[in-house]
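Lecture notes, continued. The same structure-token format from the folding unit now serves as the input rather than the output. Read the line below as a description of shape only.
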């Protein structure tokens, strides 16, 4: 089944999840070109951090309480901040070129704005 067939169900209808998912997919695609010796180092670290963002949004969306949902959203936000640093270090050590850095940082920044807004909305709801 194509993932797009479920677009309006559950977490898939959340714009924050969609943006975070797209960011994580781009990280994965770009990190395929990283040096093989970093597969279990920085490559693994940035992949795990970036995928933690949409995964925690998904888990949080399945929560039974607003408090629990906010906890998952805060974990997603911390993972997003982690990716910010990892992108910076990857650029500095030249594992990531400037064009890819700018592309990924723009996506990360979009996710950050939407996620922070979403967190505030969930806090103020209820």
């Amino acid at each position: 089944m194509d993932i797009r067939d479920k677009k309006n169900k559950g977490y898939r209808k959340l714009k924050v999840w969609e943006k975070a998912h797209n960011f994580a997919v781009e990280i994965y695609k770009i990190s395929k070109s990283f040096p093989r010796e970093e597969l279990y180092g920085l490559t693994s670290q940035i992949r795990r951090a970036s995928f933690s963002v949409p995964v925690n949004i998904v888990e949080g969306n399945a929560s039974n309480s607003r408090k629990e949902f906010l906890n998952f959203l805060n974990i997603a936000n911390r993972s997003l901040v982690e990716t910010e640093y990892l992108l910076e270090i990857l650029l500095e050590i030249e594992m990531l070129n400037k064009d890819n850095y700018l592309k990924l940082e723009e996506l990360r920044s979009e996710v950050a704005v939407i996620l922070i807004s979403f967190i505030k909305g969930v806090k103020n709801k209820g």
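Point for the exam: Residues 13-124 form a domain with the de novo design (two linked rop proteins) fold (CATH 1.20.1440.60).
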